[in-house]
Design a protein that fits this description.
Length: 516
Amino acid sequence: MKKYRSIIAVFLVLSLAFILCACSNTGDNGNGDATGQEQEGIVFKGSGSQEETVELGVPDRRLDPQTVYNQITYVPEMFYGGYSLRGGDEAEKKFGAESQYFTWNRNGNETEFTKLPFRIEAGKHTLHHSVNYIEGYNWMQAYYMRRYGENQCSLDTVLCAYEIQGNKLILKPLDTFEMDKDNKKITYTFTDEVWEYNFSFSGRTLTLSSGEESVALETCLDTYHKVDLFYAEGYLSSESKSAHGIDYIRLRYDSKDKDSSLSFALTDGIRSYNSVAVYQENGLFTFTLSLEENVNTYQYICFMGGDDGLVLTDGTETYYYNDSYSDRNKLELGSYFTEDQTGNLDDLSDTQLESIVEKKDNLMEDLAKAFNDAGITVTVDEKSGELAMDSSVLFGGDSSVLTADGKAFLNKFVKAYTSIVFSDKYEGFVSKTMIEGHTAPVSGSTYESGLPLSEERATNVKNYCVSSETGVDTSKLAANLEAIGYSNSKPVQDANGNVDMAASRRVSFRFIINIE
């Protein structure tokens, strides 16, 4: 009997060990967290590098997804991309047959629509419609089933402005929309309807509910909404903080061929092609960022927006990567166009924008070299387009009268500037040159008090630059030169965000690109 008891005891110990081992492989660390090595998920591996992809590390801080979803402030960008019923046409027909309907008086006709949409699309690169030109709203296209006849239904779409209030998605449908392309004028009206849905996210799944009815929609599906196809690409949005210096993220995973890719670019231009990431169904996005100097692992909840980028959040900080390549180029070129021209940037293709950016960059580099060769100090800011010179070099004290040293400086500047801008290489590229006067926001000063001095300095520099005293043929420069004063409205800030008083007192040249 003792022998059998011993055998049974050994069997129980082995069984318990097996169960514990099996539990340890589920990836549950008691924190709702996983690093990809602990729990299954979609793996994205770096591509385009000869270096071997690094191993996924363990983040210093692990997140509990549900805690993050409960505490974050939801924003419209989290709805970017497309969310659909998985299963395509069959799933949509089933949805139409089983859903509840409501009656909507649309354009004078009573129409029955499902209480909930079965697909939504948001973000200007996902929703391809002229409605995106209307500013001040977030736009969404919602797909419903419309009932006609007995037990018959068909797809219908509704363009809506949408907003987020807590865990409510609020849609305001458009009633009329007309666009005059020749005059670039849009007229529109809203209906009296307002539709509200409760929502919740869990990774790639968005659940919408109204009353007792709910629908689960998924993102990262193929065109037919049947197969997994993960894709997101975005540059850091202009108003967003950067996560760990990251400026650009691109990831892709095709479940058909099991192919994946991942790349990061930092704000300083450094790229990483051998990093690795894992995205789990609960939304946890864990990635190991591999750079030459160090390798670090981070974890966030990730909202996938496809062509409209992605959003990363840890529940406290949120980072937006929703700008496209075209958006980045338009943003970069914004300072080089007048306000009435910026709308024309929307008419340019990515190739045309890239060509303009490249030529602009080359021009700025050539100007910087010319100033250096001339032995003069000019601060070249490619972001703002400013070619700034310290006003103390040109004027004495608070005077607007050019000093002898100031005139000598301008002689060298004008010679260098015109030799580049009006060369064969850039002929016709610059339509106008602005001379801008700036003062520092010293204590007690106002915009009104500083405006006369900034205007006088800009005007005096302009008059001298087109005079014969420069010893240079300035006929082309004179034809497109304009002076303006900005007073203290555009101060220069240092790396810590503090006003640099000395740098703020300046006169700057800025060229305007000929969009033609």
